[in-house]
Amino acid sequence: MTVDNYPLSIINYQLKNMTLEIVSPETTLFSGAVTAVTFPGVDGSFQILNHHAPIVAILKEGVIKIAADHFEISKEAASKFTKVDEKTYTVAINSGTVEMNDNKIIVLAD
Length: 110
Hints:
By secondary structure, the protein is mainly beta.
């Protein structure tokens, strides 16, 4: 089946939401669908968007900026986040690693 001459598999791929999970030694700080995430990389900041190529990177002390259409942050983690606007939050980290694969971002943060 096609829509406007595009196979449904391609349309479903393009609509698949990118997910982010930020895990600290104490708890999971965030888990949900996001539209963009900016990281403090050791060689400078970088942004990951939907369907980014697989990547693994080391993070330095700084701020992770998260853009999403909807945020659900646990009460335990809420104090760690700063609201920038209705669709953007930030969270400070000391260091960490990030992996992006198959449209899923996992951050191990200190």
